[in-house]
Every structure is written in structure tokens, then in C-alpha cells.
Design a protein that fits this description.
The complex is a heterotrimer of chains A (737), B (335) and C (323).
Chain A lengths: L12 H6 L14 E7 L5 E7 L1 H5 L3 E5 L30 E2 L5 E7 L2 H10 L1 E6 L26 E4 L2 H7 L2 E9 L11 E7 L3 E6 L4 H11 L7 E4 L15 H13 L3 E4 L15 E9 L5 E13 L21 E10 L12 H19 L3 H7 L4 E2 L4 E2 L5 H12 L11 E3 L2 E13 L5 E7 L5 E4 L9 H13 L6 E4 L16 H25 L14 E4 L2 E4 L6 E3 H8 L4 E7 L11 E12 L6 E11 L6 H20 L31 E5 L18 H4 L1 H13 L15
Chain B lengths: L4 E4 L3 H9 L3 E4 L5 H7 L6 E4 L8 E4 L2 E5 L4 H5 L2 H6 L1 H8 L4 H6 L2 H5 L52 H7 L3 E6 L2 E6 H4 L18 E7 L9 E7 L10 E10 L2 E10 L6 E2 L1 H7 L6 H11 L12 H17 L9
Parallel strand pairs in B: 1-3, 2-3
Antiparallel strand pairs in B: 4-5, 5-8, 6-7, 6-8, 9-10, 10-11, 11-12
Helix pairs in contact in B: 5-8, 10-11, 11-12
Chain C lengths: L10 E5 L10 H14 L2 E6 L2 E5 L6 E4 L15 E5 L5 E6 L8 H14 L8 H17 L8 H7 L13 E8 L2 E8 L4 H8 L18 E4 L2 E4 L12 E3 L12 H8 L9 H14 L5 H7 L10 H14 L1
Parallel strand pairs in C: 1-2, 7-11
Antiparallel strand pairs in C: 1-5, 2-3, 3-4, 5-6, 7-8, 9-10, 9-11
Helix pairs in contact in C: 1-2, 6-9
Classes of the chains: A alpha+beta (737), B alpha+beta (335), C alpha+beta (323).
Amino acid sequence: MKLIGDPIDRVDARRKVTGDADYAADTPVAHVAHAVIVTAGEALGRLGAIDFDEARAAPGVIAVITHHDALHLPKALQRDAKNPGERVLQLLQDDALLYNDQPIAVCVGETLEAAQHAASLVHASFRAERPVVGLEGALATAYKPHAAGPAGETDTARGDVDRALREAALRVDAIYTTPVENHHPMEPHATIAVWHGDDQLTLYDATQGIFGVRDRIAAVFELPKANVRVIDHFVGGGFGCKGAVWSHVALTAMAAKMLGRPVKLAITRPQMCSLVGHRPETRQRLTLACDREGALTAIRHEVFSETSRFDEFVEPSAVQTRMLYACPNVITQHRVVRLDIPTPTFQRAPGESTGTYALECAMDELAHAAAIDPLELRLRNYAELDLGEHKPFSSKSLRECYRRGAEAFGWAKRDPRPRSMRDGRALIGWGMATATYPARQRPSSAIARMTPDGRALVQAGTQDIGTGTYTIMTQIAADALGLPVDAVRFELGDTSFPETPISGGSMTASSTGSAVKAACKALVDKLANLASGDPVSPLYGIAPRDLIVQDGALVGREHHLRREPLASIVARSGQREISAQVRAEPRPDREQLSTHAFGADFVEVRVDPELGEIRIARAVGAFGCGRILNAKTARSQLIGGMVWGIGMALFEHTVRDPRNGRVVTRDLADYHVPVSGDVPDLDVIFVEEDDPHVNELGAKGIGEIGITGMPAAIANAIFHATGTRVRDLPITLDKLL
Amino acid sequence: MHPFTFVRAPDTDGAVSAASAGDAAFVAGGTNLVDLMRLGVMQPRRIVDVNGLPLADVEDAGGGIRIGALAKHTDVAYHALVRERFPLVADALLAGASPQLRNMASIGGNLLQRTRCPYFRDPGTPACNKRVPGSGCAAQAGYQRSHAVLGTSEHCIATHPSDLCVALAALDAIVHTRGPNGARAIAFGELHTLPADHPEREHVLAPGELVTHVELPAASARFAKASRYVKVRDRASFAFALASAAVALVMDGSVIKDARIALGGVATKPWRSHDAEQILVGHAADPALFARAANVALQPAHARNGNAFKVPLAQRTITRALILATGSSGSGGAP
Amino acid sequence: MPALLGYGSPRVLAFVRAWSIDHADRAELRAIRAELRGLGASLTIVSDGGTWSFRPDDDAERTTAAVYPDHLEVPRDRDALFVLDADDHVRFSYDAGGSLAGTLGEALAAAGAAIAAKPRPTMYTRREWTLTCLVAGFALAVFPGCKPRARSRARAKEAHVPPPPSMTTTELDVNLRVNGEPRALRLDARASLLDTLRERLGLTGTKKGCDMGQCGACTVLVGGRRVLSCLTLAALADGQDVTTIEGLARGDQLHPLQQAFVAHDALQCGYCTPGQIMSAAGLLAEGHATTDDDLREQMSGNLCRCGAYPNIVAAIRSVKGGA
């Protein structure tokens, strides 16, 4: 029986297609009060008088909470600097204005209509100053942060870049910019807070990390962690913004505590632009040099990104540049600029999405300058070793990704000259780029339980943000227990289950998958020990290590005729269930290896030569991501990443008004994400790898790599179609006119 | 959303009298009104539901057609008479919004839909003359990518967002209304007003005056064979126009006997260019001629920094629409 | 600020002779959990078969053997329910007059409503006082570690609680037929169809993605046509048939579109999925799509941020082809 890898239907799909899946805001809570956050209209200065008399007097309004009467929560300003998922919170503690759309009041009503109405009646005055909200004018104030991303050094240098640049046969030196972008998962953040007494809190919260919410809220309210329970059975997308804990979660808990009744708060779509983080604007200078054969001799990648005045987030855009190509001389550096904006955060492939965009466009420019095919240029600079970390790769099939992707796309038929390919009126362009994302693992835990009926229940805190966690964990558990999938139930999304990391960084399969596998193995071991030592069992006397699972039974490795169903071992124990809980740690040999997933994207665009309209005609992505746990959900996830790449390349742009720092593109009509009409059928190729080093499962993670190569592949295709090199995302038609 | 009283109008006269007192609004599909009420941009104290009125039919009117103001976009767009006589209207309707919105939105409501200017739609931005007369215009020195280059004033540069209205402007539609002072017919070009000093006024209708029908005159049916609506937008679908052009021609062989050109996405009201039409009439269809007409159409343009691209874009959109309407050159449709 | 039960963790004690977890249906358990969340309370059910402890988000646990409290004033033929506040005062008592089995959710709802309407009694009648003492005494026996709290603490905080505000906004009667069931509602005129479905009727399958008509997550069928429920005032749907995602399947038999969405993995996070499916149902009924490009164009009102579009198109194509 092969289960891992099988393209089985999602085990939670039925609940999702019937409307039965309970997302945080769907949790039924009787007599719940509804809360709405009121935000500031200015970005910098002090809050003046707040007029809320009319709001409080409006029908159905229970309370209007402002900094005059909010609970005093001094821990809101403290964050654990080592925890990248913590943010400084704005919890109505004072009159300071730090960014436009900062919370200044919370209105609570008997109904949502009443709370919304109250919010519209709160009028604040401001003593405002002109903020600084754009990167370009503030580069002189940049500083060097302590780190770039969770694990990255801020700056690196190897070899002699200056000399290599001086001596190079060819150079490319260009500045690429990526704008502020918003995550806009379809489910807006929502929290329901239920206090049980004054020191026990249950939160139903839309989050990618229930344990992070638990820890942060416990800290803010000065409660023991055990007194805060966070539940989230279904998450309506996250893409990073639900990875940190934001102010609205604590504000909901605060309102519920002050009012002594449950409170529900869903933030509005316009508030999604400012209250839950964004991808920071970046400005990246890429300098590449190569010799006459196209061998890279120097890479310099300098990154500026924005952060808030009161907190730090660094977009680690140059990290992949340290290892992607076999170049002896490489400088990378990250600088950060403080602006009067809300704190940015992780957004799908933070660093790699913005960074591979710049690097892979520069590679295309170099290929054009050197008159070398862009794919050939990459092959000539193929990195067999991670020269940044001085480590071998645990596995790397990028060459195969290039080959199979190019073959499926028909890359060999590409005419290298820009504007050379047409279909009727349309200009056709073909572009490609490399995709990359690290394969990470963090400690995680799970519990496996078996009842006398032979059914298994496996639980781990974790979250399913649409990635298929419910499904792959069920498959992993079924495989380890030798059971059919429908004999296994996997539960998640509850801090009363064993602790797991955040659903982010493409590491849930790796981290929690390993924990599930280990817990199931531990359960099997326990049952094997029981049977081996029980004279009644047919397996009595066989050493536990000589027993294997097969079709729901333990079987002697050497004695196939001796077997006992798992169910009967549990039943005979006289216990309600047998369980095993395990915390799985990353393998020690990972330290000696560089662990990354790689891929290659090939894109065809059609560009209207007069009107500038750009449409994606087709795309192929070939990915080497270790072992694929479910070919169906994995394909969906990679397609989804590629669709994000389309959005990033062509549409997505959060615009702030420089006069007051207010987001102008406040809704989904002004902030465009791709619609069905923008997305052709996308071809995904798995280049399976056997990598025993990354983790017990050999899975590298696939949540983010799909986005990383696409923006550059599209930009390169647009250059090929039009001869115009647009270096500032998004590439909208006005930039081609 | 502010509280309001909800009144179901029993008949047209009842609707008019219910809405004639101050602070009332008619509601049909609600797609624009409910949105703006929830945003706090519009705050009527009384909502008059006109959905019970018998104004949803599409009928023959002596070779033209008469469209009830309550007819839904979908029903009009797929109506056989509309497709046969006024395909431009069907195309413009289907280029707008999404199927769900087209199932809800009424024709009458479309005529009066409000701008998508992000400053207008955000009460957190104090300056908007359209929302709060006299408060200023945040867009004049703000983000202008979606804003108008034609018909603007120093008080407002908000774009009229409708696709349908561009086709109706081209086809000389007539708007029939019933108001406190009885019924009247308004030429389409007279319905909308320019912002000038009063951006809060967008049309000539009096309080309580209800659009009852839109008439497409028989005389405009002669454009059916050579008309085209071209809409340029960032996304492939479900996006407002950066520029759009409705062209309607009467051809005699390759010679243009009569022409109508209207623009959307670039003007403060559905924009008709009579001057550009004059360039075409009497001449053989030819891309150079089209480009000349397009230039003339944008002569009155006044672009700001953030929307200067709309001038060449609108010109090219007109040219493209003329090429497609006449089958002049190139092959295939838009990419 | 009115508080339902003030500070301290309340408990609900229900004497239901014939109750058993095996006989409770899903809807009843859901209602019980909703009420317990609303009260911030835990529930102990004392039945002939044993004592069950119940927290809103955990499976019911059998805690002790049957200890039916014959010494209390609970008649053996009439079930009863009590809400005890943190001071172990009985805040609400409910005499079922008969069996509570199967109607526990309703009894809890009555308790929640009564407590919401009457924030905190300051005086007890003599009978209530006796009952308080008796039930509190029993609670001490049932809940290990439970101690009566000092009374002054919680009281002081609640000294000046204003009465709950009245709802005096414009209301109107709206009659809907939702998934075939007639629903007569008295609604705030401002209520959208979306909020009415979700907050009043508990039909949370329909999702709120933007509340401004720009995402399609709230798509339902009204009169058989796909519309956006966020921009539909509930009053405008008066007299209409409304079909939501919950009404699409025939019993356990999924609608072909639902089956196809599962088979083609036409979803990831699933949040836009009800809207996508309802929109697709509308699309098929409209009959204006012939090519894949038509499908893409006519599904463009439904955003999917996970990017499942190719699979969504494939799913709809398969149903259209099979129809």
C-alpha cells in the first residue's frame, strides 16, 4: 500500500464544498457582541479630542473604547526580539500616532450594524505632522539591521568583487524596485474572544500560528500560557499576514474582558491594508559581471527595504544570491529605512520573491548583453555547491528542472531577438527564471492515539491554511500505521494539542509531518512492545524491532504468518486508548548541508503593441522539492504560487498617499489580484528527489517556491516581447506605452 | 451605515413622492448605493425600494428599443433585440463588473453610479468636494492613475466609471424620467453635468426624479453593423476601464457615412467627441484618419502627472475601436 | 457596560435524567456549545447514566458515576437547569416541567437570553437563596476543587451597571425562503442578506470576503440567479428564494459541482469556495459559457487568492461537459 504521494482528494474538501468548514468567524457564540475598529486618518503626531458621544448614544451600541478608558496593557510595546513573529502592538494605550489607519477606538454593538454605525460616528481630531512614507526619498536614513530574515546575516562578502568588476568582459548594473503589496487572503482576520472568568481566555482566531497567538496574548494580558486557548480549525488563507499577532486580536480580548461578554471582531477589507502587515517596498541594486564565456565573475546585490518607526522587519532579498550561482566574488547587503508606516511582515516567500525577481531579471539582462541564451547562461553558472555557506546541497535537481521545463515549454524554439515573435497583432515574449526557496525544519510535536476499534486519531496544534495539512498528515499517519486513510482522523488548530510551529516558511510538512510520522512510529513501537511481551498475542516472543505494520496489523518481519491486528492489541490492553506523543527535532546532519528546493519557470506573454495590455498565455514550472506527499494538493499549491507571481509581476501595488501616509488602494477594486480571466492553464512538473537528509519524509516544502521565479520570468518575457525593460513592479500597461 | 427608513414604493407616483423629501434615495439593485452607504459616503435617511414597479421590460419602440430602468444588466445584454439592433450596448454591458453584479444592477442605477475615485470612497480622507462640497480635492495632487483627463476642473478630476453610459452616449440614447413635476425626456448628452464648481452635482435630475426608461432611438440602429466597444484595463476582467471607446459607424463600402465616438475611463462624464466624429465623416476608413480623429478627441484633455498616460492610451483605444469596427487592418481581436 | 455574568467563571448544572452523549444530535451539541461560549461557562449534566462534564470546545467527558442528587429540591420527574455564577450564586433556574433530553440547547438559550436581559440580581427571594445554597453545595461535590468565592469582589465591580441599551433603529419584517425553508424575520433595515444568513440564521457557509461587492465570496442564488449577498439588503430579498451553499446538496448526495470541486482540487483554503460553487451554479443555469475562455471570464467575479483558478475551471468544465 502506497499512501504518501498519492493524489487523494483533500480529506477536508467535503466540509469546504458544503459550507460546513468552520473558520474563526463562523464559530457559533450565543449573545456575542460585535466590535469594529476605528482607525486614524493621519499618520504622525498626536491624537486630539475624540468625539464619541453620538456613537455611544446610537441604538444598539454597548461601548466605545478609546485610550481614555482602555485596559492598561504595558506589555503591548514589548516584543521578544528573537521571535520574528512578534510585533509591537497598538492597543489604545496613549495618544501617539505612528501610522495612518492605526486603531484609535473600538466600537462594540449588540449587532454588527450597530457597531459599524457607531464607528462611523466617532470623530477624532489630530495634531498631525507630515509623515515620511516612501523609500525613495529616505534612503539617506537607512541603517544596518542586525540580521536579514530569521537566519540570515545582514551582509556577506566573498572574493574580490571590485577587482572582478574592473576586469569583467561584460557588466550589468541596474536598480529594481518592488512596491508595497498586501496579502489580502480571502478571509479577513477575525477574532472571537470568550473569557471564562477573569483569567481564562479562549480565542477563535484566524491565524497561521495558534501557539504564537497564545504566547503573545498571554504575555500582553499577563496570564499563564496555559490559561489562553486558541482554536482555528480552518484558515481562509494567510500568505504571511496571519503569521504574526496583530493588534486586533488583543483589542478583541480587551473588549471582551472590559464588557464581561464574548466579543467578535472581523477587520474590514480596507483595514487589511494597514492592520496586519504588508510586503515592504524594496529597492535593489544588482551589479553582475561575467567573462566572455558568460561565467559570472562578480555579483553585488544591495537591498533597501522599509520598516516602521517603532518596530523592525527586514526583507531578506539578497539571501538567495549568496548561493544561487557558482560565482567566486559576491557581495550582498541589507539596509533598512524607518518610515511612518505600519510594520511590514512576511509575505509569501519573503526575500526570495522580491530578491529572485531582481537577480533573475539581472541575469536576463546579462544574457541579452552577452548574446547567450538565458537558460544557457544559468547552466554555465550552475552551482554544484552552496558557496555562500560552503556546504554541499542535501540534494539539488535544478539542472533537471531546467531541462524538463524547457522541453515541456519548447524553449529551444525561442528566437532570442526582442520583438521577433508575433501572433497576429500581439507581440509574443518568452522568458524564464530560476525559482528557489530554503527547505526548513523546526521542532514540532504530535500525538497519535489508537482506540480498540482500530481507528487512529492523530493530533497536532498546527494549522491548515489551504496547503493540505489535514490531508497530508492523514496520509503520513495512515502510512506509518499501516491503515487505510479513512481509518485515520487528523485534528489540528487547537492549542490543547501538542505544540507545533507556525504554518509558514514552507515548513509544515517538514516539521509537523515529521512529528506525525514519529508519533505514529512511537505508537507502533508501544503496541509492538505490548504484543511481544503478552503470552496471549500471536506475536509473543518476537522482538519488537522485528515487527512491522502491514494492513492494520503487526506482522513478524521474518514470520509473515504471525500477525495480530493493532486493534486487538489495544483492546486487550484494557485501556480506552493507547497513545504516543513525540517531539520531532531536525536531524543533526542538516547542519552540514545546504537544504533548498529549486525550480525553473517558463512563461509566454502576449502584449498588445499599441495598448500595452499584457496577458499570460501559458507557463510551465518545473520544481525539485524533495518528495511530493500528495501530487494533487502539491500541484495546486505550486499553481497557486505561480498565480501569485502573476499578480506580483502585473498588478499588485499598494499605494500610499505621501501627504498623509494613507493607503489609497484600499479595496480589491483598486488593489488588483489576478482573476480567473488572467490565469491560463498552468503546467507543473515535479522533479522528484530522494533526499534523506532534509527530514524523515524527504519533503522540502512547496508553499512558497511557486511564486519565486515567476515575476522575473514574466518581466523577462515582457522584455522579449517588447524590447522594453521595466524594472519597477508591477509592470502595468502605462509603463509600456 | 446610518439608520434609515425603508419604504416599498407601490407605484411610480408613490416612489416619486416618497423620494421627493430631502435625504431620500431610490434603491433598485443596490450595488452602488449599499456599498457607498456602508462606506459612509452616502447617508440617506430614507430608502425607496422601486423594485416592485413594472419597469423591467425591454420592448420594441418603432425600430428602436425601450429599456425599463429596472431591467438588469444581464437581461439587457443577452436580449435578442438589443444584440441585433444595438450590439454596442450588449458589449459594453458585458465588459462591466462581474456576472453577479450584472444580475443585480439595474440600467437606471448604472446611469447614476458614482465615481470610483479612491478619495471620494474613503471618508477618512477629508478633502473631497464631491463628498463634502467645499472640502477640497485630494486627487489634484494625489494618486491619479484612475482619474480623468477630460472634463475636469480644479475642484474634481473624478472619472465616470460606467461602461454602459459610453455606449449610450455614442448611440444618442434618450432618458425618460418621472419627477415631482411630471414626466420628461432627456437627451443622453444632457443627463450628466461636468464637475466645474459643483462636483457634488453629477446630473440634472431633481430630487425624487426617477429614471423610468432608457430609449435607444430607431435612428441609431443603423450603426449595428459597424460598432465596437474596446475597454482597456489592468486585469483581463472585473476591472474598471483605464480607457474605453465606443465607436459606431455607418459605412458605405469603405467610406464612413456617419460616425459616433464616445469615451469612458478618461472623463468626468460619459464623453462624446463630436469633433472627432466630424473628422471621419465622408472619408475612407484608414488608420491614419483614425489617428487624426483620435488626436482631435483628446485635444481638450488636461492631464496631471499621474494620468498623462491616458491621453495616448485613449487615442490608441479610439483607433483600435475604429480599426475593429471597420475591419481596416490587422487580424484577430485584442490579444 | 452590561456584563452577562460579570467576572469569574460560571457553571451550568443540568439535571437531565435521560441524557446520554450517544443520543445527543449534532445540532443540539452545536447549540449547547454556542450557548456555553456565550456564557463563558462549562456545563455539568447529571443524568441517571452518570455525570458528564462539558466545555464548549472539548468532547463531553464522563466524570463520575451516577450521583443523582436526591437531597436537592429537584423532583425526579422534572429535569432542571441552573446557572451558577463565579460566587456560586444561582443566577438562573429553569424548571423543564418534564424531560430536558433533546431540548437542553433550548434551555441553555433561555438561560443565556434571561441573563443577558437581567444582568445581575441583587436580591434573592428566600426560595432562591435556599436553592442557591443547595445547588452550590452540590456543585462543591461535583466540581473538584471548587470553593465558594468571597462575594464582595465581583459585586463591587458591577455596582453601576446600566440597563442594556434598547434597539430603536428602523426594523422591518422580511420573509425569505432559505434553502426551501420559510423564514420570517424581523430585521434591522440595514442588515445585508449576507449578515442575515450568517449572524441571524447561523448559515455561515456563505463568506464575507470584502463586504463591498469586489470578491464574490458571498455569492448566493436569489430567485435562482447568482448575486452578491453583501450588497443585497435583506429587505430587497423579501419574498424571494435564497439558495446558499448549505442548500445545494441533496441530503448526503453532493451536487455535481461540489463533487467536481473535490475531485479537481478546485480549492485550497476553501474560503472562496462556497461563493465559487454558487457562482458556478449560476453560470451553468445562465448557459452563456461555451469555451474555457468564457468560463474564465464568467467566473472572474470570484476571487481566489490561493490561485486555484485552473482547477476551478476544470471542475466546472467537467460538470458542463457531463450535463
